[in-house]
Amino acid sequence: MVANGENSAGGSGITTKTAKEIFDAGVDVITSGDHLWDQKEVVELLNDEPRFVRPLNYPADTPGQGWTLHELSDGRRLGVINAQGRTFMPALENPFHALNAAVDEIRKTTPFILVDIHAEATSEKIAVGRMLDGKVSAVIGTHTHVQTADEQIFSNGTAFLCDAGFTGPQSGCLGREFEPIIERFLTNRPRRFSVAKEGVELKGALVDIDDEGKARSIVRISEALPEETAQLRA
Known about the structure:
Elements: E1 2-4, H1 16-24, E2 29-31, H2 42-48, E3 67-71, E4 77-84, H3 95-106, E5 113-118, H4 122-131, E6 138-142, E7 152-153, E8 159-161, E9 168-169, H5 178-187, E10 200-209, E11 215-224, H6 227-233
């Protein structure tokens, strides 16, 4: 199980505490994105947590790792890569070159590879998926918080979904209370965007992969959390 955890700390960044909560829930690897640096504690994760990956297209001297190999229960390994797009995003190195190099390296060890492409533009995500078709098991997009309905398996066996959506309260606007966001749009004045609390849902995708690392199926997941559990977590 792989989860993007970059907004787990009250909607901004990730901390050692929220990372522990995610791992304790059963997640094996946590990926990140453009909110990587929102919490100073992230440096501890970058330096000390082998199950945490940041976008690999940061400069070479950046702390942390852009991909990792996770050992599965049957002894095989899953390569997990995190990359960040550049269209309408903070300027990083070219993710296409970085991804090709990482995939070539990981395929020396395992054909089972999952890519989290953290990007704004759907065209950039689709281009990454098409470029890596047949080279990786799945390319799943994150960042825009809205789950897309374009799940598919490309012709060479790579599962693709433009955006997995976000796990959290669906009652607001991208996880935040919607009233101050509307005021911001109306007035252009700064407002504090508090995290919404109602309508908590689990979003993501389930990918079935064969012994050669090719995807057999991909199913979007969108499940409401029981109300009593959602209230307890809030």
